[in-house]
Amino acid sequence: MNADANSLPVVCFVCTGNAARSVMARAILAERTQRYRVIGAGTFALEGHPMSQRTRLALNRLGVSERDHRSRQFGTEHAGADLVITMEPDHVKWVRKHYPQVSSKTGTLRRLVRDMPTKGNLKERVTSLNLADVILEDWEEVVDPASGDQDVFDACAMALDDLVGRLALRLF
Question: What is the pLDDT of residues 66-75, one digit of tens each?
């Protein structure tokens, strides 16, 4: 991170346990840009746990390193993000219920890849999506690899690499 990291727009990736999907997505976007401060959290996270070995290996296979990760429960510091990106519709519903003030800047990764405008500053683009009013759909889910073998984690990491790469093009 550069010296002005605290002045950068904040993007927060959210999954359930902050142990696999949000960790991978956060690390991938952080690897690709220093234009955003990228953080992560979970809707049902056990605080302070490291990522699983399968997550670490999947990231390593992409050439991405995430050495210091510790799981975090979504809280007020995450609610201050400029954009909250979830891995599935249930995460958006959780944010809408527990942090309704963040609903207007919370969307699924798949929806944001499809709908994020490319012109204007981040706040204007996010506002234009009317995310608080979006009807969530099943196609928006990035499936959790949690109980899968290494190949399931690798496939999830490759899918996230593609999705985050496509989102990055829209964010820049």
Answer: 888 999 999 9
Q: What is the DSSP letter of 25?
A: H
Contacts of 130 (CB under 8 A, 6+ apart): 104
- Asked if 28 and 167 count as a contact pair (C-beta separation under 8 A), the reply is no
Whole-number CA gyration radius for the chain: 15
Residues 24 and 160: beta-carbon distance below 8 Å: yes
Per the structure block, which two tokens stand in for 65? 């390193």
Helix/strand/coil for 131: helix
pLDDT at 106: 98
Token duo for residue 143: 């499936």
Q: Which tokens is 62 given?
A: 């992409």
Residue that the structure tokens 């891995």 belong to: 87
To the question of pTM greater than 0.90 for the whole model, the response is yes
- Helix residue ranges per DSSP H, the chain: 21-32, 53-61, 76-79, 89-98, 109-115, 122-128, 150-171
Place of tokens 């993007």: 11
- Axis-axis angle for helices 150-171, 21-32 (nearest 10): 40
